[in-house]
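Problem: given the chain below (196 residues), write out its structure.
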Amino acid sequence: LAREGRTVYFSFGGFEFEYRRRSDRRFFEVFHAHPQMEFTYVHEGRGRLIVEGRHYPVTPGTLMVFQPFQLHQVQIDVAPDAPFVRSVIMFDPAILRAYWPSFPLLEGFQRQLLARNDGKPLYGMGESELPVSLLRPLHDALARGGSPQERREEADAFLLHFLRQLKPLWQRPSGRPTAAPVAKRHDHRSEEIMQW
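Solution.
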């Protein structure tokens, strides 16, 4: 648990979570990749996402999804009256492995997310819409503390519920990504380096 201004950042056992992180004076991000899967929900802010050589607009209600080791960059213009406010979930996909025998369809959905190769975000998710509405209760539960086992169970239950609520949104039409099978993405040079 670390504090950054008014934001509380949780990190333990392959799981990281930051609720409503705010940047209003400076936001600069270089192209980067990390070994975890990442979901970033944009509460406020406008800019663009660069991933897989494609550019996508970033607006409030955008959910960005990054595979492990997928190079990406988010560019947001910020000012005191135009902040970038986002919630970030990062986790090692392997932490859910123990649950897959009970949730084979959810495992298939996670595999689909891990195999996609376009980097296209999900648009039009309101604050009150599931799975976004799950973010605040997770923040509150983790902020209350508890034993390491209680936090682990809270995080795992959240991830399963988050993915379960995301699945039908991912599959609906109107410009959102669909559930159609996608080709396996190619390995990135950064993956080769990290494995070395």
